Amino acid sequence: MSQNNLKYKRVLLKISGEALMGEQGFGIDPEVVNTVAAEIKKAHNLGAGIAVVVGGGNIFRGVQNSTKLGMDQASADYVGMLATVMNALVLQGVLKKLDVPTRVQTAITMNAIAEPYIRLKAMRHLEKGRVVIFAAGTGNPFFSTDTAASLRAAEIGAEVMLMAKNKVNGVYNKDPRKFPDAVKYDRITYDDMIVQNLKVIDTTAVALCKNNDTPIIVFNFAENGSIERILKGETVGTYVGGE
């Protein structure tokens, strides 16, 4: 398909670390990573520019572990950033196996394993048809990888931010995994997300997307072909945007 037939020609895909561990309590589930990579490949084959931000919660969560270990949060957050780099390198390896050209850029300089984050270089990679994976969050403590995703989406001019969730197919008024009577939204505004304090996306990230007029689509990546359908303009998951 020609890129001209796509509704979204450049997207930022956010994948949480928790999604990568699947049914495991820790680490990376190879089946899940292979599924994510296959979905990215389908979207890449359509000609869309795809950037990815990965979380690190499957390995280390800064906020939670700082309390448990008695660390200060800044130090714990840096460890969490390193966890995102591990996930990014694994995803890159699987994408390469699928013959998808991929580059990893890190917000913390690690020249031996990845490129440093340089906005114009990232955009050049996208123009050349390469998938770019952004790791190490924003490079600063106290910011979530959701916020990093919204920041990178704005920087590269992404037309939409795709929030890939595991077994959650959109935004609900309360946690559907705990409350069977939870109601799913097909569409919701940035302001309603913030006012209702819906935890599916970090509030700071939602505010940043609002300020930059970047819509968000929350969807279940395990549903086959979801990213492909979104790129073609089909209704998938929950659309978060303006009025």
Please characterize this protein's 3D structure:
The chain has 243 residues and is α/β, with parallel strands linked by helices. It contains nine helices and eleven strands. The chain has one domain (3-241): Acetylglutamate kinase-like (Carbamate kinase), CATH 3.40.1160.10. The radius of gyration is 17 Å and the shape is globular. The two termini are 32 Å apart.
**Biggest sheet layout:** 9 strands, mixed
What general outline do the C-alpha atoms trace? globular
Radius of gyration, in angstroms, nearest whole number: 17 Å
- Which strands sit side by side, in order, in the main sheet? 4-3-5-2-1-6-10-11-9
The strand count comes to 11
Estimate nothing, just give the exact number of structural domains.
Answer: 1
Q: DSSP strand (E) fraction? A: 15-25%
CATH H-level homologous superfamily name:
Acetylglutamate kinase-like
Low-confidence stretches: none
Helix content: 25-40%
Mean pLDDT: 94
Q: Would you give the CATH topology?
A: Carbamate kinase
Number of H/I helices: 9
The arrangement of helices and strands along the chain is EHHEHHEEHEHEEEEHHEHE
Distance between the termini: 32 Å
Which CATH C-level class is it? Alpha Beta
Secondary structure topology:
Blueprint: E1 10-15, H1 17-20, H2 30-45, E2 49-54, H3 62-69, H4 73-97, E3 102-106, E4 115-116, H5 119-127, E5 131-135, H6 145-156, E6 160-165, E7 171-172, E8 184-185, E9 187-189, H7 190-195, H8 203-211, E10 216-220, H9 226-231, E11 238-241
Parallel strand pairs: 1-2, 1-6, 2-5, 3-4, 3-5, 6-10, 9-11
Antiparallel strand pairs: 7-8, 10-11
Helix pairs in contact: 2-4, 3-4, 6-8
